[in-house]
Write a structure and sequence with these properties.
By secondary structure, the protein is α/β, with parallel strands linked by helices. The chain is built from 15 helices and nine strands. Helix 9 links the parallel strand 8 and strand 9. The longest helix has 17 residues.
């Protein structure tokens, strides 16, 4: 098993397709210096055969940051892992949890829960060619595979393959009969199954994921497992990352407007290289969630960021009423 510092996985932000791009990760890093960040899933085929520079692009400020890969071909995944490690990623994570149709058709994601031996081969192939940790993100089960023994066997196979960190989404994946959107709520979460896994594999770093939205919930989970992974909560209410940074690491809570001010250099540099403002502002819409004026802030950015010439001035204008109310 790889030597892992469990504390490095105490707080993590889930890889989310169409969400956790490099702009999102830069923003999240400003809110939490300690959180471990993950890329959107990149298929091994796209990376090995495609535009590596674009797919692997990230900024120095994002670290620690992990590259999540999707695939089921050990040779191809090994090549992709080498590219990720060479690009400077701190971890290579294999997706064995995504239930989307597109993922199933490519024979990767949650359908691989049924083939732990193949996943073990993939992990072993990657771990042999890179020095950074190779980790796995999985579900507690898939379709009719709903016995704890199945998850136990999967975890055993991962440990035998050398995995030191297992990120477990505490909801079973349904690949037939439910849409991925429906699978976000059905079937119910089963946190106890993940806790049991940690009790039976004490040397395996276990990170729990699924439906976690508050500082209090994170604290409760950390009494049972090594780490917590936030998904949609970190995106829709990103300031929760600052609250967690304060609660878990003793940092002072930042002023929300100050966080945006610290993004100005990044945003203007991106605009100068041709990035449209809308690709960045979509990630900051939830920063003032629950605060007076939040709706106006979101509306002004949503309506103006796609217009030609939209720049930092739009963000400054959207923040003006919030600054006055502070």
């Amino acid at each position: 098993m790889q030597r892992i510092d469990p504390s490095a996985f105490r707080l993590t932000v889930a890889p989310m397709m169409d969400w956790t791009d490099r702009h999102c990760r830069y923003f999240h890093r400003l809110l939490s210096p300690h959180a471990r960040l993950y890329t959107e899933m990149v298929t091994s085929a796209a990376l090995v055969r495609g535009n590596q520079l674009r797919l692997l692009e990230h900024s120095h400020e994002e670290h620690p940051v992990a590259l999540q890969l999707g695939g089921s071909d050990p040779v191809e995944l090994a090549k992709a892992a080498i590219l990720g490690a060479q690009a400077g990623y701190d971890e290579i994570n294999l997706n064995v949890g995504c239930p989307s149709d597109r993922v199933q058709s490519g024979k990767f994601g949650a359908c691989l829960m049924r083939e732990p031996d193949l996943v073990g081969e993939c992990v072993r192939a990657m771990a042999e060619v890179v020095d950074v940790p190779v980790t796995v993100k999985c579900r507690i089960g898939v379709d009719d595979q709903d016995e704890y023994a199945d998850l136990q066997r999967f975890a055993t196979t991962m440990v035998e393959a050398g995995v030191g960190v297992l990120v477990v989404h505490a909801r079973k994946a349904w690949l037939e009969g439910l849409s991925p959107k429906e699978n976000r709520e059905i079937p119910p979460l089963d946190y106890e199954r993940v806790y049991r896994l940690k009790r039976e594999f004490p040397d395996l770093t276990i990170v729990i994921n699924g439906g976690i939205t508050t500082v209090e919930a994170v604290r409760e989970h950390l009494a049972h497992v090594d780490g917590v992974m936030l998904g949609r909560a970190a995106y829709h209410d990103p300031f929760v990352l600052a609250r967690l940074e304060s609660d878990l690491y003793g940092a002072a809570l930042p002023d929300r407007a100050d966080v945006l001010d610290r993004m100005r250099i990044y945003i203007e540099a991106e605009l100068a290289r041709g990035t449209q403002l809308k690709h960045i502002t979509r990630h900051i819409l939830g920063l003032f969630q629950g605060e007076p004026g939040a709706r106006g802030f979101r509306r002004q950015l949503s309506e103006g960021s796609h217009l030609p010439g939209a720049d930092w001035g739009l963000i400054e204008s959207a923040m003006a009423p919030l600054r006055q109310a502070a």
